[in-house]
Design a protein that fits this description.
The protein has one domain. The chain is about 5% helix and about 45% strand. It has one helix and 21 strands. The protein has a nine-stranded mixed β-sheet. A hairpin with a 2-residue loop joins strand 8 and strand 9.
């Protein structure tokens, strides 16, 4: 629901009609040969407040002027034995959804998407995207993103509720649901959404909003801070919870177990209704 991401635009040109393909189905006319310059306009919006365990229901939309697109998904189990903190790093473009469950294992679903001028090109790009999972660290890498091609990797991760997590995103959103472990979340150009999650949480963004929804019976102490522009909207706060300049909110008298920090975007604190 919360985060929207816009990527860099290349040389301006009139947008062309788009066609979409999955791993095996293609629609639309064959793509024309690429001109000397073509606009690249990408918008991604994440609605991960909805329950999603597969790529078709992840509710992330990518809109681009490229005439061809390909998608695929894969799933793998992640070994947790001997791992105190599971580290998840998104690609340059892509979001991360983490949901806690009662199983002792971790399962990763990877949603890949590539766009370009021809179907053959997008299939090659998909094949060049690599997902690495080693020693408790998961990351995505792939070819360069430029005016001729772009790609995304969105990760859906199911982990034990009490697992320790370190989640970082360069240009996409992070959503965390139903966890109670020690969690660190960092986003550079995207938002962070946290719901029905307790434990020790340290979440910060450089250029994106933060949403925190506490459970009805949750009594976590919270500290929310904005460094520059932006506002804190707390629907469960009283006037005494705010600092004089409204750049700081504290809920509860104990040492904060949830810390939220952003630079120039809003922070919204509410309860699940």
């Amino acid at each position: 629901m919360l985060f929207a991401i816009a990527s860099v635009s290349a040389h301006a040109a009139p947008p062309v009609a788009t066609s979409t393909t999955s791993a095996s189905v293609t629609t639309g006319a064959p793509a024309p040969a690429p001109p000397a310059s073509r606009s690249l306009i990408v918008t991604s919006q994440d609605f991960s407040s909805l329950l999603a365990d597969d790529c078709d229901h992840f509710h992330t939309r990518n809109t681009t002027s490229f005439p061809a697109a390909s998608r695929s998904q894969e799933q793998q189990d992640i070994a947790l034995q001997g791992i105190d903190v599971l580290k998840i790093h998104s690609s340059e473009q892509g979001g991360i959804l983490v949901r806690g469950w009662d199983k002792p294992t971790a399962r990763l679903t990877v949603c890949k998407e590539a766009v370009g001028f021809t179907q053959q090109q997008t299939q090659r790009t998909l094949g060049a995207i690599n997902i690495s999972s080693r020693n408790g660290e998961v990351s995505a890498s792939g070819p360069s993103i430029d005016e001729s091609q772009a790609w995304w990797v969105h990760m859906i991760l199911r982990v034990p509720r009490g697992a320790g997590l370190e989640v970082t995103s360069a240009n996409g959103g992070i959503a965390i649901r139903n966890m109670n472990g020690h969690i660190t979340a960092r986003a550079k150009n995207g938002g962070i959404s946290i719901e029905k999650t307790s434990g020790q949480i340290d979440a910060s963004t450089i250029n994106g909003p933060i949403s925190l929804k506490l459970g009805q019976d949750q009594s976590s102490s919270v500290e929310a801070r904005i460094a520059d522009a932006g506002e804190i909207f707390c629907r469960i706060c009283r006037a005494e919870n705010y600092s004089a300049n409204h750049k700081l909110v504290r809920i509860g008298s104990a040492t904060p177990s949830i810390r939220l920090t952003t630079t120039s975007a809003p922070i919204v604190i509410d309860q699940v209704r």
